[in-house]
Amino acid sequence: MANDSDGMTSANTGADVDWDARAASFDEEPDHGLRDPEVRRAWAERLRSWLPRRAGDVLDLGCGTGSLSLLASEQGHRVTGVDRSPAMVGLAREKLAGRDAVFLVGDAAAPPVAEQRFDAVLVRHVLWALPDPGRALRHWAGLLRPGGRLVLVEGVWGTTVPVGIPAERLTGLLAPIAGQVRVERLSGDPLLWGGEVTDERYAVVAVCGASGQERGEAVAAGE
């Protein structure tokens, strides 16, 4: 699990965080555990608009304790989650016990899964912390079936020494992979975060491996 928006510094990009130690308390953050019904509902509505309408295979990279995986499963998708923290993976397995979901310990940048296997790759607050985000995006695109989509939730946090990845940079990295993308600004929706936020938070949905017309139609319709 890459570092989230709390306690970020330029030197703290997730690599030096003991995520196994933080697993037990991870869901205490409103946008991590989604325990508040309004926060949970807000994320469920967004996720429904980002993922394919038809039930499919979703890969949740840096899945943490599986909160977004659970929402995707509840919406009918088959979920594979990957996180480098065994403790996080263990909690995700408990959270989705009995559902059509599999959780693996592995590197989000190069997950232990097959190519052209998924209809959507879902990644929240992970890409910005990777040493080569362009390479990760290209690899993730290869995991998608033709017409599959990348759903990337990212941002820029902090004021004195901001960290993160601006939306403009991310869309530039996606241009050779997907061409047409949709950017959805999230900073103005306090329900997603459990309160008001002032930094840049957004989601990008990019359809890969389809014609330009098909990409535009799919992104616009949320199919």
Which labels suit this protein?
SAM-dependent methyltransferase, methyltransferase activity, alpha/beta, disordered C terminus, 8-stranded mixed β-sheet, 223 residues, SAM-dependent_MTases_sf, transferase
Describe this structure in words.
One of its GO terms (molecular function) is methyltransferase activity. This protein has nine helices and eight strands. With 223 residues, it is of the alpha/beta class. Strands 1, 2, 3, 4, 5, 6, 7 and 8 form an eight-stranded mixed beta sheet that branches. The longest helix is centred in the N-terminal third of the chain and has 14 residues, at 37-50.
Please estimate the helix content. Answer: 25-40%
| Multimeric state | single chain
Distance between the termini: 28 Å
Topology order in helix (H) and strand (E) letters: HHHEHEHEEHEEHEHEH
Low-pLDDT residue intervals, each spanning 5 or more residues: 2-13, 211-222
**Major β-sheet annotation:** 8 strands, mixed
- How many β-strands, per DSSP? 8
> How large a portion of the residues is in β-strands, by DSSP E?
15-25%
Let me know the average pLDDT.
Answer: 88
Rg is: 16 Å
**Structural class, please?**
alpha/beta
GO biological process, one term: methylation
GO molecular function: methyltransferase activity
Keywords: Methyltransferase, S-adenosyl-L-methionine, Transferase
Protein name: SAM-dependent methyltransferase
